Amino acid sequence: MEEGSLEMISFQIISNVGTAKSFVMEALQSAKSGNFEDAEEKLKEADHYFVEGHKVHASLIQKEASGEQVKFSLLFMHAEDQLMSTETIATLVREMIEMYKKIDGTN
């Protein structure tokens, strides 16, 4: 695999999951304000970008599984870290939104 393509894949992951994380945090702020409909829309947007980032990541896993050498880089490690932290943050924010709904009496 060319170094440039690994860099491009890394940046695609970082970009997509970074956008997903932004939408997740916006969803939390909407829920905090009692706007649960907007929060759900933001979570849907977040899911879209997270899936796109995950698809790019999965393409590397498929390449390695088929025998192609995938080089390790600090940039790629950062991309994977962003992917995993966004997934964790999204899970926690979904739980927090449910708590806000209970506090608000809408759930």
UniProtKB/TrEMBL annotation:
Binds 1 Mg(2+) ion per trimer. The modification Phosphohistidine is found at H78. InterPro entries: PTS_IIA_lac/cel, PTS_IIA_lac/cel_sf. Its cofactor is Mg(2+). Keywords: Magnesium, Metal-binding, Phosphotransferase system, Sugar transport, Transferase, Transport. Gene3D superfamilies: Phosphotransferase system, lactose/cellobiose-type IIA subunit. The active site is at H78 (tele-phosphohistidine intermediate). Mg(2+) binds at D81. The keyword Metal-binding applies. One of its GO terms (biological process) is phosphoenolpyruvate-dependent sugar phosphotransferase system. GO terms for molecular function: metal ion binding; transferase activity. It comes from the Bacteria. This is PTS cellobiose transporter subunit IIA. The lineage of its organism: Bacteria, Bacillati, Bacillota, Bacilli, Bacillales.
